[in-house]
Predict the 3D structure of the following.
Amino acid sequence: MRTMRLSKGKSDEGGGTSPGVREPAVAGTFYPGDAKTLGSMVEKHLAAAPATPDLPGQPRAMICPHAGYVYSGPTAAANYKLLRSGQYARVILLAPSHYALLKGASTGDFTAFRTPLGDVPVDTAATAALRQCELVSDRAEPQAREHSLEVQLPFLQKALGRFSLVPLVLGNVASRERDTLAAALLPLWDERTLVVASSDFCHYGPSFDFEPFGRTDREHIAQLDREGIDRILALDAAGFESYVTRTRNTICGEAPIGVLLRLAKLRRTPPQPVLVAYALSGDIERDYEHSVSYAAIAFCEPGGTAAQTGLFSAGEKRTLLEIARRAIEQAVVERIRKPGVDESRLADRLMQPGAAFVTLTENGELRGCIGTIEADEPLALCVANNAVSAATRDPRFSPVGADELPRIHIEINVLSPAYRVHSIEEFVIGKHGIILEKNGRRALFLPEVMVEQRWTPEETLTHLCLKAGLPHDAWRSGCTLSCFETEAFGEGDS
């Protein structure tokens, strides 16, 4: 039996290079080699990570350490605890090359990365797109042994569940080339993609040939790191790289961090970096003369979609319901079919992009239900438009009459972003709404529909196929399933 040994920053273990699946290179060294022990360790780190104070928005990118889990696991967990299952369908992982001499960057040629927790599929369409950039190759060697890629995966598997991977190992990449790589990555950084830059910070001591302070203590190392972290928090790529050149601080992921900083600045609204956690291996071993530093930094996108920013307040719910009723009254009584909303009177969150369904009932019976899945307009306007459509354009019912308005009850479901699921086991009755797509047809059920009908998951999918105009068993092969969650509220709710 191989004895597990955990590393502070590097490994001399070999890795698998079989074609197709990239086998684990550091299982049993950087982290446990069996699934049960590994899963338990990751879950314990996530559970022990302290709650992070309110962030300015949803994490869209991260800088995470990549040492042995005993050393860097608590710091990495502080970042990964911010994620929720299904939040992202794809992860772009930027990692430094520790073992191979590499000019530019490499996506490798693997179709999946294996960990004891299972296989993570590579988004081969995305890697092929990246290789259109002259700086990017498909060399497998830089990825075959690279622990800075591998150690992120079990945390991501536990935090996100299923996702696809875009692995990019960076070697010698000059400043202008980092601009080129950032531009190549930008089209891939959509709302369902998380970017992770893998990096440890200061490697201090004779083992790393870095002793600018001679015999030192935690304060000196932390001050050195903090200067670089401050440049990251300012999204100052040039300043960060100048700092590394000047101080020679041994930040192994300096290139991935530099690319991430440039990538962040290319977004219309750059995400705001927040230092989530910082620690040193010396904190465990009480030896700061042979120490590696770890920082967890989350890049948070201000605002985001309305559904991503958390529960709505009672006042916000009341405002949305008032908007819906007023829009229906305008359409039914005043014959104004294109409602407007007074943006000056609304909270900023209600003017963020949102997707919602508006459901009308009369004496407990359905009277109309229309909604949108994509968050492509301000939530307040989405609610107003769908309220009018539910009252006047639902093909299952005649338009609502003015005399019915006092008896109409309005309920709103605000949808979270939908995400792909790969099996019926991932669908939870009462928690998830579900979307089925096949052969150009699509149908959706809100979470409460399955509860009210007392359907099993199989019965739900059967009825969803019929709703889409497909054979009742069409869900068994060749269809696409997506889940979402909702926040539901209605008139008269306490």
Remarks:
- The radius of gyration is 26 Å.
- The first helix runs from residue 35 to 48.
